[in-house]
Amino acid sequence: MTTNIEKLLSRSSESLASKPVAMPEFLQAYALGPELVHMLQQRNGFYAFEAALHVFPLTTDPGTGLEAWNAGSLWRDEYGDLAEGLLFFAEDILQDQFCLSKKQSGVHRFHAETGQTTFMAESVEEWAGVILSNYKTETGWPFVHEWQEKNGPLPLGKRLMPKTPFFLGGEYKIENLWAGNPLEGMRFKADLAMQTRNLPEGAQVKLNIAPKPE
């Protein structure tokens, strides 16, 4: 019987890196670490659904792999305790992250604009099934499909980002999206999440946007 992971991989790109030999030490703290590694041993990082889904590979390359993406100094430290104990292994086209947790079982969605997490599945296999059964919503595929029809292929490594954050009323329309650098996108979303984390629902928001460092 074909598993959900096998079905997902059948709809994905080629591996983004060579096959990993063993589970790295940093994954041993996560209950689903072995299952994640098992998937990556079959396809070590990949894109699927017109790059709407991006799964990070295990690689020694310091700039592209799973460990590098989870480095505190890259962007996650800017979320403070909101990202504590989480391992981000994949992302949708709008940069919500899919993650494992040291504190809770299962696979979770990390909402990048707010820093909140919601439970998705008990296992990586079940997560793959959730993605397959509702990929349009779970990966944001309609956005990248329409964006590429209008603008051409999405540049390699870019993600779609809202001109006006969705959390602040930005519309889920192509006119509100642009292709940007993932690192800059996550840093901006972290700043947004930290500035608004304690505001009551419906509160008026005035963001403080610092200039980019020279």
Mean pLDDT value: 91
Number of strands: 8
- Rg, rounded, reads 17 Å
N-to-C SSE string, H for helix and E for strand: HHEEHEEEEHHHEEH
Helical amount: 25-40%
Runs with pLDDT <50, length 5+? Answer: 210-214
For the terminal residues, how far apart are their CA atoms?
55 Å
Q: Which of globular, elongated, flat, extended, rod-shaped describes the shape?
A: globular
Q: What's the main sheet like?
A: 6 strands, antiparallel
| Main β-sheet, spatial strand arrangement | 1-2-3-4-5-6
Strand content: 15-25%
Number of separate domains:
1
Indicate the structural class.
Answer: alpha+beta
Number of helices: 7
Descriptive account of the structure:
Strands 1-2-3-4-5-6 form a six-stranded antiparallel beta sheet. A two-stranded antiparallel ribbon has the order 7-8. It is of the alpha+beta class and 214 residues long. A hairpin with a 5-residue loop joins strand 4 and strand 5. 29% of the residues lie in helices and 17% in strands.
